[in-house]
Amino acid sequence: MPENASPAGYVALIHGLGLSVPPPRRLFATDERYSVREEGRWTLMTPRHVPATTLEGHLTFALRYEGVDLGLLKAVFKAVGPEAIAAIVRGTPTGIYARRLWFLYEWLTQEPLDLPNAERGNYVDAIDPAMQLTIASTNSRRHRVRNNLPGTPGFCPLVYRSEKVASFLGSDLKTRAWEAVARVPADVLLRAAAFLLLKDSRASYAIEGEHPPADRVQRWGRAIGEAGENPLSVAELLRLQRVVIGDARFVRLGLRDEHGFVGEHARGSGEPIPDHISARPDDLPELMEALIAFANGPAEELDPIVAAALLAFGFVYIHPFADGNGRIHRYLIHHVLSRRGFHPPGVVFPISTAILDRITDYRGVLESYSTRLLPHIDWTAAPDNNVEVHNRTADFYRYFDATPHVEFLFECVQKTIEVDLPAESTYLQRYDAFCRGVQAMVDMPSATLDLLFRFLEQNGGALSKRAREGEFEALSAAEVAEIEAIYRDVFRESR
């Protein structure tokens, strides 16, 4: 913490109550200066913002200036017990922040406080829609609070309305996606879609450091092409795992029955070096049920890209399977976008390709939560060099700040719309123009014509000596020169 600053809000509650929970991405404190400023991870507020040094004071400060952190609030509620929250409500029964705390306590714990229903006070939002993304609200008459939380008590990541998120939400990427597709001739679109689908499948394996045979890539590509056709369920996820694994002789299919982590093993000793620790196996049935309920419920009311990010990254943090999690995680993005009609049927934007192009950023997004989570998991190395988790961790996977994940996915989708699809369609149209030009001067089978094109493409537009003396020795020097000129003319502009 910066010198001469005093912790406020969530960070003060974490330290004051001795909580072991992932801290917020931004931490708040107050100091002696009279202007709000940012310093590293800290937001420093002014003396007039100093909260009362009480549970109520710091909770009110947090809700007012930091937004809602469900995982942290639930840990606070467990630590202080129901009577402490009930006392806050009794002290200010019509207070905005008291009623929000009351509602959040009962929503998160599913346990009622010893309080009568609220009879006075205007309805207030559970979370501030100007600060965090919400869905259409339903009134909780007991608390006189509008429940606008974008999830369920079992699974509810939250997203801050950052400048980048707000900008993307206002850009209407869905309309731009349909317009981009409409600009592509129908015959070209079919070929471009087929290529991009295969490219996405190959990229999804490459992200995992795998280079499987063509039949596995094509099989997974077909699965991606069918994304959104079936409602999401645990059974559907298990079907996808069987598709993505293929040969399951050495992989246990289904939900894990052992602990798991993402990372490496130490050389020599083989001890685990985790970058991320997955949900405990005992918690998987409940967590997966909650994830599916979110996908088929509140997610339908969110922006498609926001919903896809929350679902996909929530899944990969839970890591329910022994293998195949990463590819299914990216499949879930396609599932949501397709089911919500983000793009026309038969067209799949190559999200995995865009991720692979930004693999360092992708890992950074995953680590934006994992690095804050890892210190709060009590684990030891198991005899088989796996991990063994000793504390309760289920809530860590229900609630997390998904803002970086949403921003990243927006950027990836934007790239597929504005760069990848137009580039591939332009490439195919130029390829067609090249073929027409060559066919006008010499009759050549399509396979031979394609081989000729590949030779030129690999050699910067010039036919190599080996090709001229080998496969294309029947071409005259003048014909070769003219073909090279056609290629240069068609691909004059960089694609």
From TrEMBL:
Gene3D superfamilies: Fido-like domain
Residue stretches making up the Fido domain: 232-382
Binding site for ATP: V262, G263, E264, H265, D323, G324, N325, G326, R327, I328, H329, R330
One Pfam family, short name: Fic
Active site as annotated: H319
InterPro entries: Fido, Fido-like_dom_sf, Fido_containing
Entry keywords, A to Z: ATP-binding, Nucleotide-binding
GO molecular function: ATP binding
Protein name: Fic family protein
